[in-house]
């Protein structure tokens, strides 16, 4: 169904090339110190600044299907290796563990059983997923 403007004329389609902020892809960003999550809402820049200020702790950033352009800001802030970042935005990677200097990048596969009274196809029995994670020691 075409989009119409208030005058009734066909409206221009939305510009899909508009930049989307990284915050649209961030599910969660948190700072942990001594195994305890600090209260508050953090941007990825604020989180690493807090860990560096305290000289201890770690940052957890959960992203949901970020595009290369959106993850680049985080990659720049945290010094993530460009090949690992490239792999992080490409779905359907094989499970692996890659090491880049002081950083690890891992791809894990998940499987979840889905209960059915009488499944008709094999893909109704399990759901699969993919987790990609970076782990790095960042010096001040």
Question: What does the model show?
Answer:
This protein is of the alpha+beta class and 140 residues long. Helices cover 21% and strands 31% of the residues. The chain has one domain (22-136): CorA soluble domain-like (Beta Polymerase, domain 2). The protein has helices at 44-54, 68-78, 82-88, and strands at 26-33, 36-37, 58-63, 96-100, 103-113, 126-136. The protein starts with 25 loop residues before the first strand and ends with a strand. Mean pLDDT is 83; it is low at 1-5.
Shape: globular
Largest sheet: 3 strands, antiparallel
How many beta strands in the DSSP annotation? 6
Rg on CA atoms, Å = 20 Å
Unreliable parts: 1-5
Topology of helices and strands:
Layout: E1 26-33, E2 36-37, H1 44-54, E3 58-63, H2 68-78, H3 82-88, E4 96-100, E5 103-113, E6 126-136
Antiparallel strand pairs: 1-2, 1-3, 4-5, 5-6
Helix pairs in contact: 2-3
Quick structural summary:
By secondary structure, this protein is α+β, with helices and mostly antiparallel strands. Helices cover 21% and strands 31% of the residues.
Keywords:
Beta Polymerase, domain 2, 3-stranded antiparallel beta sheet, 140 residues, alpha+beta
């Amino acid at each position: 169904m075409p989009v119409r403007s208030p005058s009734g004329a066909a409206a221009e389609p939305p510009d899909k090339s508009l930049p989307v902020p990284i915050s649209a892809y961030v599910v969660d960003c948190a700072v942990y110190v001594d195994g305890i999550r600090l209260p508050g809402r953090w941007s990825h820049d604020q989180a690493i600044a807090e860990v560096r200020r305290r000289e201890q702790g770690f940052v957890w950033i959960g992203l949901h299907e970020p595009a290369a352009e959106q993850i680049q800001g985080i990659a720049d802030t945290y010094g993530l290796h460009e090949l690992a970042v490239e792999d992080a935005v490409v779905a359907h990677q094989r499970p692996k563990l890659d090491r880049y200097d002081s950083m690890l990048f891992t791809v894990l596969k998940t499987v979840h059983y889905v209960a059915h009274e009488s499944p008709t196809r094999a893909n109704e029995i399990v759901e699969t997923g993919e987790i990609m994670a970076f782990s790095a020691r960042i010096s001040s």
